[in-house]
Amino acid sequence: MSRQTPSQTVGPYFAYALTPEAYGRRGIASPVLVSAATRGPRIRIEGRLLDGDSAPVADALIEIWQANAEGRYRHPADARQDKAIDQAFSGFGRTATDAQGLFRFETIKPGRVPGLGNALQAPHIGVIVFARGMNSHVYTRLYFGDEGAANAEDPVLSTVDPSRRGTLVAIRQEGSGTTTLYRFDICLQGTDETVFFDA
Amino acid sequence: MTAELPFRPRDWSVHPPYLTEAYRSTLRRSPSKALVPLRQTLSEITGPLYGHEAVAEIDADLLRNGAQGGEPIGQRIVVTGRVLDEEGRPVPDCLVEIWQANACGRYIHTADPHRAPLDPNFFGAGRFVTDSEGRYRFRTIRPGAYPWGNHDNAWRPAHIHFSLFGPSFVTRLVTQMYFPDDPLMEIDPIFNAIPDPAARRRLVAAFSLDVTEPATALGYVFDIVLRGRLATPRES
Questions:
Q1: What is the ipTM of this complex?
Q2: A199 chain-B contacts, CB cut-off 8 A
Q3: Is B49 in contact with A79 (Cβ distance < 8 A)?
């Protein structure tokens, strides 16, 4: 058995390589996961990444991974034939925070996927954050505030201290038109610290 | 089906902890609360996949992919290795992205304040999708060390940043590759954030005369080990 290669910080200068649009190049992914052909209800996720002083983290890399609107992952490990793959949706997004620590993704609301014991999980999106000052990345999940019933029976949320569950829930913003806007701030440290998982 | 097996846990005996005070920016960016264990579901054992169509040949050649009529200055090197899992199995079709400073230790990133010159023929980023043996190969120049503001007279050792996906979202890894015999490593708070000396040494590339191309470029080998799989399926 070999041992895992250790992590190191992504550092402050990843953008020209990983999110290079500002340098006139195309990255392998972007914060826009949808095209005209993508199926499902359009959503926008906006939030700020904050540090232990509640200061914006302006040099972070954020990535998301999610199922399609039917709840199927675009990956061979999800071989469920009763849920269709959406050829116009990969499920992966990547962005960098701006000078105010803001990030934004345009995607669709994922369908529910089974968890352990085949119990359905509430709709959720996997989120990874990398930044200067982070020796390893953090991993968390985004749940939806308008899915109260599903969230109440979610097997992963149930393992989280009830006083901290709110940090994982994106709040629907009203009046956003045909694309539903959800607000999801991520706090790396402090009293409002987001729950991070060891997955 | 191997694809449905869960992954071995992250090995926290090798990974650096979030808070390492000598690396000052970890003071406000490290979670203060314990991670919550999460038993892997479909959400964790799936992840983005990139085939060979996602990259072009020139993406792996940093001597050419930023060139504007000339060649970059610096010691030319070939960096190659295999992406493996803990069981020693190759990880094929793994997207590897790299980025680095130029030979003067200057990044093209607009936020780099270091007053060393830019190289008009060097962009400093590349991509590769590993072959069936898990192998990747880049051509580039050896990056210079660069000063940073962590402490007085602080210099990062020469390094190349690596970002890898692996088979799933949870095998995602970002790390740095270092060069042998660089005196800056042992006084670098980022390198030393890794508590175990044997684990630190695995980030140091090995000079290889076999990989060295005569009259052209020195060769370095750097293998990367990602999380392996558990033998038994998830509870179904």
A1: 0.97
A2: 38, 40, 44, 170
A3: no
